[in-house]
């Protein structure tokens, strides 16, 4: 070992020991605990502890197991705890212990007086998560053993200054012809996939995950049915997509806190890869279930409902989650995000759908009538828009896309007249062209699930239509 290396090694340990010495003053000399006084529905009430909102704690059970919980609010001396598992077996007066942070490693000391995001819970991140399936707490679900990674990242990272973010300048190939040509996606863009139940949003997400040119894929399955989680991973995502994907699954039977944490964890994994300079595709299915989990927690601790039963905190949480995606610093990586939004009863004015539309960089609407007619993917290009497309595509591309949308829209508005023979050819030159091109346009917008339409192929087929 050279003198320079030895000096650097010694300086690193001295710095670490100095940091540890500064932490000693914040350590509790005695183990403190509180007691459970009330369990009502989803919330437990605790007295005897003074913990900050967001702090983690555990409740030992008589059978030797533990229930993990998080402080979600307080009133006076009472803390409101939200468990990460079922509360069955909790007895009156059960003891509650705060979770102490893990022993620090050299160069990774988190100072207590730093920002709250530095003191939040940290979960595993890194390349070892690729090909793995974990739950919202970072525990493996795929039966492949423990995660072999020492890297951890905060659940709630510091927000990036919007003026420091790199602008959206490059396109991202997602392998779906209708999106590549008509709703071009930019690296770092955040889009919503608005759909009712059973119109093919999971299949479309699987196509995007398999065929995208992004370096890494992070999938957050939040609040979905357990059967759907396995089907998405094994059949829709497939071995090819799964090999470069990290999947966080918090199905519908998970407690609401774990569903919230699952969405934050998937975003944290994506942020880790973005900070390494990689192009990340984040798929969140679904943003509506995330909002419903927050609604369950907010109503349980007494927050009043506002818009159609959703408390105000729900609409405050949505932009906090979504704004974590996007481009990083200049010259760094990017997170291109697709958030599915479940439109209940195909109502596009649903409060969550309406709020999501305002905070996202575009929306892709899936139409039930198209799905029932066998038109897959059932993308309604009339209602869909990509707000970044204008700045990342050529003028010729925009003209061709506008022309196709014009002809498609004109034909749809006159479909009834055409079908009953009430339209006389020659009355409207634009409609005549729309009728002549309709079959070609329909074929262009449809795509089989196992077909990969690259960006160049999509643009070539679009220009050849005219």
TrEMBL record:
It catalyses: ATP + H2O + cellular proteinSide 1 = ADP + phosphate + cellular proteinSide 2. Its main location: cytoplasm. Its EC number is 7.1.2.2. Coiled coil: none annotated. One of its GO terms (cellular component) is cytoplasm. It is found in: Cytoplasm. Gene3D superfamilies: 3.40.50.12240. Residues 187-370 form the AAA+ ATPase domain. It comes from the Bacteria. Pfam families: ATP-synt_ab, T3SS_ATPase_C. Keywords: ATP synthesis, ATP-binding, Bacterial flagellum biogenesis, Bacterial flagellum protein export, Cell projection, Cilium, Cytoplasm, Flagellum, Hydrogen ion transport, Ion transport, Nucleotide-binding, Protein transport, Translocase, Transport. Belongs to the ATPase alpha/beta chains family. This is Flagellum-specific ATP synthase.
């Amino acid at each position: 070992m050279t003198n320079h290396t030895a000096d650097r090694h010694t300086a690193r340990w001295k710095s670490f020991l100095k940091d540890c010495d500064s932490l000693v003053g914040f350590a509790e000399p005695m183990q403190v605990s509180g007691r459970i006084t009330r369990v009502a529905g989803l919330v437990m009430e605790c007295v005897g502890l003074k913990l900050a909102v967001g702090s983690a704690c555990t409740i030992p059970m008589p059978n030797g197991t533990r229930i993990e919980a998080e402080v979600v609010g307080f009133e006076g001396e009472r803390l409101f705890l939200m468990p990460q598992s079922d509360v069955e077996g909790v007895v009156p007066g059960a003891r509650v212990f705060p979770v102490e942070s893990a022993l620090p490693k050299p160069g990774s000391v988190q100072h207590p007086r730093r920002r709250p995001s530095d003191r939040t819970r940290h979960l595993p991140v890194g390349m070892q998560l690729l090909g793995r399936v974990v739950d919202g707490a970072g525990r493996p679900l795929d039966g492949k053993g423990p995660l072999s990674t020492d890297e951890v990242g905060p659940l709630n990272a510091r927000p990036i200054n919007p003026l420091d973010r790199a602008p959206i300048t490059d396109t991202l190939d997602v392998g779906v012809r209708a999106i590549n040509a008509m709703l071009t996606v930019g690296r770092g863009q955040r889009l919503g996939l608005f759909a009712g139940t059973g119109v093919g949003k999971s299949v479309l997400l699987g196509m995007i995950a398999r065929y995208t040119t992004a370096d890494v894929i992070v999938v957050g399955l939040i609040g979905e049915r357990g059967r759907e989680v396995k089907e998405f991973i094994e059949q829709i995502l497939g071995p090819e997509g799964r090999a470069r994907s990290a999947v966080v699954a918090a199905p519908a039977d998970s407690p609401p806190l774990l569903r919230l944490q699952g969405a934050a964890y998937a975003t944290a994994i994506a942020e880790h890869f973005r900070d390494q300079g990689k192009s990340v595709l984040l798929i969140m299915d679904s943003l509506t279930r995330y909002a419903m989990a927050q609604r369950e927690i907010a109503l349980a601790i007494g927050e009043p409902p506002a818009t159609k039963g959703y408390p105000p905190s729900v609409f405050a949480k949505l932009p906090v989650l979504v704004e974590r995606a996007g481009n990083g610093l200049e010259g760094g990586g990017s997170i291109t995000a697709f958030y599915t939004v479940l439109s209940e009863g195909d109502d596009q004015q649903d409060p969550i759908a309406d709020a999501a539309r305002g905070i996202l960089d575009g929306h892709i609407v899936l139409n039930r009538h198209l799905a029932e007619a066998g038109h897959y993917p059932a993308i309604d290009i009339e209602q869909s828009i990509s707000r970044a497309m204008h700045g990342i595509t050529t003028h010729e591309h925009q003209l061709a896309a506008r022309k196709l949308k014009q002809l498609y829209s004109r034909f749809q508005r006159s479909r009834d007249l055409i079908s009953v023979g009430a339209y006389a050819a020659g009355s409207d030159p634009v409609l005549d062209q729309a009728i002549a091109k309709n079959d070609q346009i329909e074929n262009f917008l449809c795509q089989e699930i196992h077909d990969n339409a690259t960006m160049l192929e999509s643009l070539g087929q679009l220009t050849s239509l005219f």
